[in-house]
Amino acid sequence: MGEGTDGATSQHTLTRTADKAGFLGAVIAAMGCAACFPALGSLGAAIGLGFLVQYEGMLIRYLLPLFAMIALLANVFAGFRHRHWGRMALGVTGPVLVLAAALLMVSFGWPTEWLLYPGLALMFVVAIWDLLAPPSKWRRASA
Length: 143
Prior knowledge:
Shape: elongated
Radius of gyration: 16 Å
Structural class: mainly alpha
Low-confidence stretches: none
Number of strands: 0
Helix content: over 70%
Strand content: under 5%
Largest sheet: none
Number of helices: 6
Mean pLDDT: 82
């Protein structure tokens, strides 16, 4: 194996890990705001994350957009690297919806569950898809 292959493998691992970390972080941040996102807040309290309510402002203003941005950048980077445009479009749509939900809620105080929940669901689907059928396997199969 040459140096290029090792670098490509580490970049692939980094983007796959960043995508999953972005999704998980966004979900946990949303679970901390029971008033903003009742379904996730209830789920978070049920699994013992009710203590996050005291950090609600920080979670919604900073961490939710941060983790959505991490997932967004990971999906864009991986999409350009693997050139699977449809997969990249799906991978980018979820984080963009989550970012829009967080920014609209923080900026205008609008209820944005209708953006957040589909965005998180799409992030989840793309993350599972990436685990079951990584784009690198598609590249080898199509080459």
